[in-house]
């Protein structure tokens, strides 16, 4: 498979011995048994490291078997291949030959889960999965070594890959679990078997594949089915689907249901939020204990999800004070709310990079957060928005409805890209309209000529709308101007 280009975080100690791989893979060895242990697992030759075990997974656009020679050239200790390709590839190096490669990766992941004593947390939700996972990664280091998903490795190959990479001595494991169809979470969480399962929120996403939001809630609630007996189910208390999710948790192996939000009955309750341009001060009550802490990310949605993080940390045995203290260092990632202060040529402007993904809930959260940031001088709030995908027949209305949110958040100018965003553009009052173009790249020169000092510029859209092009073009503008600071 040669479709994923992400940095891999792999423990370079011995992960699997050569003979120890045979049984979980249900493999026969072609040629001699590998002499070196596996120190990592890879499905992508571009990021493969020496002594990695390479899995030749078939992707939508390529077949990993075509890259086995390249894997050995980069130092793979062995490759996992299927019977149909074994003879052709035997000359390149040691092979573990299986009936199908992806199920073999799943079996290895399950074997990794069985051999560890780690406390395991699984996270799903319509919005905030990755940022919550990254906050947990940071917070749980206060209790020991942490193994977590790379990037958004949350699907049918990402979850078993992350499991297979989990070191035997990991103290904690954190797994992001995604879906866009019913029934997808159940097998994934069955592999992970978490002690704690979090649903950040439920929102109208992937409506192309679901009848309504309630159906999405039911699909998210599948995460509770994999809990170890007596595990903890953590649910957003403020959302309309709370009771539905809680009922699903009650019929699961969960031994405790905990909630978070602003609701007076929430176990982790947000009491006060003071936003700033690059952080928030949060006051909260966590199961009766009042805490005030700095969160290294602005925005109510980040603050509310930090409550779920603290509940999970406490369930994993990390003291609340220790967990809350490190949230000050929890900053949004590129594409997921990262803020950059860039040079416009006549002075600095602030770029909010939300280019990785978008749906109605995350769009509202990002726009509202940007609306709380103070403007300086003659600065403006500028939104550069791309299509929100997989919303089905409701998509035109859901895009048009963003007009009210933009007005409420006090934006001054809106640029839009994509056929769905045309519905928003048409719904905007004339004073808010910048330009609309069918493709993101067509906005690049227009936006570059518009942004000036003291502006706050939010770029957001589904990954498929390619809004990252606008982010990169604004970074290039700053580089040409001769300065860039984070």
From TrEMBL:
It comes from Beijerinckia indica subsp. indica (strain ATCC 9039 / DSM 1715 / NCIMB 8712). Residues 347-462 form the Mur ligase C-terminal domain. This is UDP-N-acetylmuramoyl-tripeptide--D-alanyl-D-alanine ligase. Involved in cell wall formation. Catalyzes the final step in the synthesis of UDP-N-acetylmuramoyl-pentapeptide, the precursor of murein. It is found in: Cytoplasm. Residues 39-114 form the Mur ligase N-terminal catalytic domain. The lineage of its organism: Bacteria, Pseudomonadati, Pseudomonadota, Alphaproteobacteria, Hyphomicrobiales. Keywords: ATP-binding, Cell cycle, Cell division, Cell shape, Cell wall biogenesis/degradation, Cytoplasm, Ligase, Nucleotide-binding, Peptidoglycan synthesis. ATP binds at residues 125-131. HAMAP family: MurF. GO terms for molecular function: ATP binding; UDP-N-acetylmuramoyl-tripeptide-D-alanyl-D-alanine ligase activity; UDP-N-acetylmuramoylalanyl-D-glutamyl-2,6-diaminopimelate-D-alanyl-D-alanine ligase activity.
């Amino acid at each position: 498979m040669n479709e994923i280009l992400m940095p891999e975080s792999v423990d370079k100690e011995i992960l699997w011995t050569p003979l120890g791989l045979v049984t979980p893979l249900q493999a026969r060895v072609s040629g001699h048994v590998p002499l070196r242990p596996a120190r990592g697992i890879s499905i992508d030759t571009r990021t493969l490291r020496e002594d990695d075990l390479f899995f030749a997974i078939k992707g939508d656009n390529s077949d990993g078997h075509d890259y086995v020679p390249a894997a050995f050239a980069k130092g793979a200790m062995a490759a996992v291949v299927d019977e149909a390709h074994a003879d052709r590839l035997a000359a390149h190096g040691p092979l573990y030959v299986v009936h199908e490669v992806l199920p073999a990766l799943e079996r290895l992941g399950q074997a990794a889960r069985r051999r560890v004593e780690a406390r395991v947390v699984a996270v799903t939700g319509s919005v905030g999965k990755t940022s919550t996972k990254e906050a947990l990664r940071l917070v749980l280091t206060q209790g020991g070594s942490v193994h977590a998903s790379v990037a958004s490795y949350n699907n049918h190959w990402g979850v078993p890959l992350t499991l297979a990479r989990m070191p035997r001595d990991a103290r904690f494991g954190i797994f992001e679990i995604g879906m866009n169809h019913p029934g997808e979470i159940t097998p994934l969480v069955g592999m992970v078997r978490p002690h704690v399962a979090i649903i950040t929120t439920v929102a109208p996403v992937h409506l192309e594949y679901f009848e309504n939001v309630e159906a999405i809630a039911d699909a998210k609630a599948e995460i509770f089915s994999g809990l170890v007996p007596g595990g903890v189910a953590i649910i957003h208390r403020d959302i309309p689907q709370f009771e539905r999710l809680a009922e699903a948790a009650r019929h699961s192996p969960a031994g405790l249901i905990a909630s978070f939000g602003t609701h007076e009955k929430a176990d982790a309750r947000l009491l006060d939020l003071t936003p700033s341009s690059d952080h928030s001060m949060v006051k909260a009550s966590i199961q009766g204990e009042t805490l005030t802490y700095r969160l290294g990310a602005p925005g109510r949605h980040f603050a509310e999800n930090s409550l779920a993080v603290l509940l999970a940390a406490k369930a994993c045995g990390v003291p609340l004070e220790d967990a809350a203290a490190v949230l000050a260092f929890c900053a949004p990632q590129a594409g997921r709310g990262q803020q950059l202060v860039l040079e416009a040529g006549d002075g600095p402007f602030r770029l909010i990079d939300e280019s990785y993904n978008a749906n109605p809930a995350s769009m509202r959260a990002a726009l509202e957060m940007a609306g709380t940031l103070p403007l300086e001088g003659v600065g403006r709030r500028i939104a550069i928005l791309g299509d929100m995908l997989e919303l089905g027949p409701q998509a035109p209305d859901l895009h048009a409805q963003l007009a009210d949110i933009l007005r409420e958040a006090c934006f001054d100018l809106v640029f839009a890209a994509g056929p769905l965003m045309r519905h928003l553009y048409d719904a905007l009052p004339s004073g808010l309209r910048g330009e609309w173009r069918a493709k993101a790249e067509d906005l690049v020169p227009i936006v570059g000529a518009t942004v000036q000092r003291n502006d706050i510029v939010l770029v957001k859209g589904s990954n498929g709308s390619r809004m990252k092009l606008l982010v990169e073009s604004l970074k290039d503008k700053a580089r040409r101007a001769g300065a860039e600071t984070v």
